[in-house]
Amino acid sequence: LKVKRGELSELTYKSDMNGLQRFSDWLKNKYGSDGYEISQINHKLIQKFIDDRIDEVSPTTIDNNIKHLSSFFGWLMKKDIVKVNPLLNKKLDKPRRRKRQSIPTRQDWVTLWNHCESKVNRWLDGEEEYDFFTTMIFVQMNLGLRIGEVLNMKWKKGGSDTDTGHSRNYVYLNEERSRLTIYFKRRLRTIPTTSIVKILEKIPTEYHLRKWVNTSKSNKNVKMKYVFGNPYTNDKRYGNQISRDFKKFMVELDLDTNYTTHSLRHGWAVNQIRNNSNIYTISKFMGHSMVQVTEIYADHLQSDDFEELVNNNKPKE
Questions:
Q1: What is the phi/psi pair of residue 232, to 5°?
Q2: Among 40, 111, 173, 263, which residue carries the largest CB count within 10 Å?
Q3: Reported pTM
Q4: Nearest residue to 299 via CA among 98, 146, 102, 55
Q5: Edge to edge, what strands does the sheet with 153-154 contain?
Q6: Whole-Å CA distances, 302 to 72, 114, 207, 257
Q7: What angle do CA 223, 239, 234 make, to 5 degrees?
């Protein structure tokens, strides 16, 4: 009922099942398709899972994973399926997240921008096929969005995309593709998309799919709900997969693999500061709760950013 009323997000409601599925998938990827017998799962194995998870999610998500696993094994004990709860009275070592170079340097930002812009322009000119990933990254670099905001972006407003008193997020374009309404992390804002209108106008809104059903082939036209959605499910894509693809993207461009998709949001902010944009305007555009959050990005300016200052010492008469 809370989910239907918008008071609780579906992800939060299903967090236990999502966490257990994540653990199951991890076992299969790590130890083969057969995974592990439940009776073989011990404290050390769960510690390995936590160690691998720390680079993908927040410590809060890790805590929730541990709670759900402990609850699951408690249930298994009641059903007499296992004799021991591997998490009971045993403390897991929570590894510290490795420090990441999350702010792209000036040169790395230019390299990434030039690569994406060139590829997108070739697609706009009809010289290349549409590549959703590069286009999505370039849109994020233009608007300084969170990756979640990009993945949630819809072609039009949905029936429930109005309220601001719930934990659900929504992002949608207006009919002209010139404005983007964003409700994310309980903050509502509307930003212009004039710099990327041509890109948005050419992104496919419909896909013609061929699917095999048993031995027969069926054709289907799919009208997309999300701008960068998965045409086979007509749903938004998963952030974890995008993060893995982004890491491969960094390897291809010979850039720091510690950069993440969120680095693009940081990079946008620092680039705006370098271009002398008003920090209060930047703060409102990004949806920060306080301007002090935006001011943190000024700490990432590098020595070459100060050349203009030292060459501008002569007083004006």
A1: -80, -20
A2: 263
A3: 0.67
A4: 102
A5: 153-154, 170-173, 179-184, 187-192
A6: 49, 21, 45, 20
A7: 15
Residue 195, number of CB atoms within 10 A of its CB: 10
Rounded to the nearest 5°, which phi and psi values hold at 211? -125, 140
Which pLDDT score, from 0 to 100, does residue 197 have? 95
Cα–Cα dist 249/259, whole Å: 10
Do residues 279 and 298 make contact, with C-beta atoms less than 8 angstroms apart? yes
- The answer to whether 55 and 47 have CB atoms below 8 angstroms apart is no
Count of CA atoms in the C-beta half-sphere (13 A) of 156:
6
3-state SS, residue 306: helix
How distant, in Å, are the alpha carbons of 58, 143, 234 from that of 106? Answer: 27, 17, 37
CB 65, CB 54: distance < 8 Å: no
Q: Quick: pLDDT tens for 223-265.
A: 999 999 998 888 899 888 898 899 999 999 999 988 999 999 9
**What is the DSSP-derived secondary structure letter of residue 194?**
G
Residue 297 CB burial class (10 angstroms; 0-12, 13-18, ≥19): buried
Contact between 133 and 115 (Cβ < 8 Å): no
